[in-house]
């Protein structure tokens, strides 16, 4: 039967060679796609195996091991979830009587983290199973198409093209997922000074202290360190120090502060201004400095505060940092619970 006119023996002049060439081209595309599918399937399978391994590492369980004489026996292998809980219990062991409530709170945080992580991992497992099934179905369909005659191969071209586009899109989404998500069974546990548990990497903290030479920056830092005062600020904050007793350099301070506030990296940073040397006779007051530096205009659109202080005695230092802490709490950066 002619694949073009659908009749037996009546066709004339039909270009079967063209039809065969197109069918062969489609077959070649299908073979290329099949190769991509096999690679894609292997990637999904490998990812799924990693998911299974991660879940096993988190949950732990019983494993059969051999001792030194070759005898097999069952041994409990703790998972990372159990190790994390053990880490929490060990930390609170010495303070158990007075810190029971805090320990239970910390363990609940670990449990919530483990539960959420396992839920996510299991959802990933289900998604990978569905995806693998879809890819396998597509692969089977392609294999069946390869067995068809030229006419049916040509007729299936549009469907195969749509199928290929769908698979390519799924493969791209899978690649993006695999690139952006690190499969890691570890549960890093650290503790704050008030015995709260933090799960995750340690955060780097930066507070920039700036000011003209002689303003008192070093004295302020020395006083804070000497008194062992530590204020956790998990964001970039700027502490600018002004010498209240040096009227002649006030405009220079204004110029430096103005340039600082134009920096892109500090666009959203909190600004704390220490008006230092308030103990010196004739020093400018906080109100005078605010007016002379036009701080309301200069700092428009950002959270800022000017605090009078004396770095030598420590007067005003904690009050300034308390303001900074309250701003971070209000912004949800620090937790006071």
UniProtKB/TrEMBL annotation:
Q: Spell out the InterPro entries in the cross-references.
A: Bbox_C (IPR003649), P-loop_NTPase (IPR027417), Small_GTPase_ARF (IPR024156), Small_GTPase_ARF/SAR (IPR006689)
Question: Does the keyword field hold Ribosomal protein?
Answer: no
**Binding residue positions for GTP:** 276-279
Superkingdom to which the source organism belongs? Eukaryota
Q: Name one GO molecular function term.
A: GTPase activity
Q: Which UniProt keywords apply?
A: GTP-binding, Nucleotide-binding
Keyword Iron-sulfur in record: no
Mind telling me which Pfam families this protein's record contains?
Answer: Arf
Task: Cite the PANTHER family for this sequence.
Answer: ADP RIBOSYLATION FACTOR-RELATED
This one is known as: E3 ubiquitin-protein ligase TRIM23
